[in-house]
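cache lookup: miss for this entity combination. No prior model stored, computing from scratch. Input as submitted by user K.M.:
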Amino acid sequence: MDTFLQQIFNGLTLGSIYALVALGYTMVYGIMGLVNFAHGEVVMIGALTALAVIKPLAAAGLPGPLAVLGGIAVAIPVAMLLGFCIERIAYRPLRNAPRLAPLITAIGVSIVLQQLAMIIWGRNYHSFPPLMPATVREFGGAQITDLQIIIVIVAGAMMVGLLLLVNVTRLGRAMRATAENPQIAGLMGVDANRIISLTFVIGSALAAVAGVMVAANYGIAHYNMGFILGLKAFTAAVLGGIGNLAGAMLGGILLGIIESLGAGYIGDLTGGFMGSDYQDVFAFFVLIVVLIFRPSGLMGEKVSERA
Amino acid sequence: MNVLLEAVGINKSFGGVQALRDVSLTIRQGEIYGLIGPNGAGKTTFFNVLTGLYAADGGGFSFDGQPLDIAAPHLVAAAGIARTFQNIRLFANMTALENVMVGRHLKSRAGVIGAVLKNAGTRSEEAAIERRAVELLHYVGIADHANALARHLSYGDQRRLEIARALAMEPKLLALDEPAAGMNATETGALRLLIEGLKNDGLTVLLIEHDVKLVMGLCDRVVVLDYGEKIAEDVPEKVRRDPKVIEAYLGGAVA
Amino acid sequence: MNTHAKPWQGIVLIALVLAALPFAVGLGMGNAWVRVLDFALLYIMLALGLNIVVGFAGLLDLGYIAFYAIGAYLYALLASPHFGLHWPTWAILPLGALVSGLFGILLGAPTLRLRGDYLAIVTLGFGEIVRIFLNNLNSPVNITNGPQGIARIDPISIAGVPLSKPLEFLGLALPGVYLYYYLFVLLALVIIFISLRLEDSRIGRAWVAIREDEVAAKTCGINVRNVKLLAFAMGASFGGVAGGLFAGFQEFVSPESFSLMESVMVLCMVVLGGMGHIPGVILGGLLLAVLPEVLRHGAAPVQKLLFGKVLIDPESLRMLLFGLTLILVMLYRPAGLWPSATRKRELSA
């Protein structure tokens, strides 16, 4: 059973990261009905910015965790600003345009951000210095590092924070109202533009933290890390039911676990025909099966055919 | 007169709310049959069940002497029932003419090969589709706007276009969901003439309508739904004096 | 008679331009640019195929490149030393259309109930699944030769004459890229013709009706399931043909030619050109195929001219400008560069 538990631990770590990024997709989708394809690049910029701060801090003799905190403290505002600009430049002017127009600008933004990152940070992989405590703990035959535990706890805390923000505060109420019906929310005195900007900003902050987690977890960061990660997170958001916050969390964690289990077991399941290279196939396959039976995702509202 | 449509014990509920409860009714060949009732009485739900958009929880229809397959909307359409929608559903970015031409889908057959080769058969079929579509635009009185996008038509013209599209299907039963909604008195008058004309051409019409005057003046028979249940079905003169109906409408509206 | 002659004059003119184009490009800028034209024609075929699915039927497909891949690998497997098979081109291309079309139905069937963005992610997943299989089906049985791809594919040949070798013609040696150009132009014209005919037909109207209002389309008697599957199959079959041509032209295929970015690229061609409008889609395909090449060749010299040295890696700069182009075009022309006349009226109104 140790493999099983091990894959669950790994999946939970990966899944918490997916969930944080998926929240960014799902928040924007919930409010604007738009898939922000550039969101993965915000994760990447967050990770590389943090790394650019962490390295000199660590070199100056600051203790590892403090250096990482310093990196995150810089990465978050940078990502927030980026999210704000993306919405202003690429989406706001197209609010009433044909549905696919913002999709193309999103792809354009994605390409531009990747290339800018490559110009700034180069093509190479940047290694994330081993600053975080890597103590290995044993649980029932499986190993888990302190870093993994920290990732899960921090991600969990941020998700709880977001849920509180959305469900308890005035701002959250305005967000929910705007998601429900922007016109009516506007009549009630909610400034929809401000809410939309805020949604991008909050999602980007989560993305920056997720970016640092990915870099710390895998020990590397590079200019095109955002693309695949964004793709996975978007898949997670859809799996859970896009537009639904709890769904994004559930979808993220499920996807992480499915992938890890897939990587661990797909060989046995297929009699050695498929190796762990097929873990993405496995993830997409699960997604497709879920959507066949629940076309709006696991927690998405059921859309009856409206006549 | 022959029975065209018979509904037997139709039930439909949404998450515990019974929208239709054991609704049975019969529509006879060639009549204008009104379906009325207060808001939320289940009129549109009945339409949606009949036209295959909602699955019924129980009950069934027979149409033109056959059991009606309501498993999918296109099957209902193929059986000969065409409908319009309360909130007008046109193909907004197609021209008025194209909208009506889509209505000829079931009455034409060209597939991919026919479309690509454009052989004599396809050409004459296309010509016939277009000819019929133009005729119908004339019939409902919006031929001048044949090449305008549907979304650019005035509200009343959109209603007419939707009827023309439904007529293009050559239905045995035309189901109109509040065709006079949002129309002014002149437009309603013209609509009334249009529907009477359809009846004179032998078409059977099922009509949901809020405008009670229009219903009472136009319909041969009327059914009244209230909270998903049938409370009356008869000729207008009797229905309007039915105490249950008067109560459902809180006394005033029907008189 | 004069009025009847006019459309023919136009056709003759277009034919002359198309026939002369590779010479103008080749002699003026070198044969590498004729090769760029060849690729542009393949992209135009792809864009027209995707246009049926996205532009006409309104089904957002982010995995379209999978059908290109299927067509390409089918050609590679049936005409290369990999399996020792050497089928003739004219047997493989229709088979490629057919097999890709079947895969189109296979993809379409489970996704019929899904709405826009859900459909997008499932098609994206399908595209990735196909690519991952191509990448990994080299063991336990070597079918696709994995990431190395399949090399030494037979060139496309017509009546026993391979297009890869120069052809003596009127005392002129026509290089392979010219021969491929003429073949691709011909097939692109066939695909354009089919697209135009489909657009103006009962099936084309049914597709657009579904795009505009699925519920209303159903109540008009359209069997939405079949008509959607038909759109997937038709679009996929265009992709399959283009893929076969690609394999024979390159004489090499590998999974990395079929990444998600390629699907995105083809979608950009469709949307940027003018979704659902065939001339616009052709323009989009041509522009987005040629623009990166222009930027590739222009990025370094222009920098030298302006700053005296190369400041930014030309490859980066090229993609940067490409991304900016996508953003700017959409911001200033949200309906595409060349939308259909009705669309234009609506936007100016």
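stored under new cache key. The longest helix of chain B spans residues 120-140.
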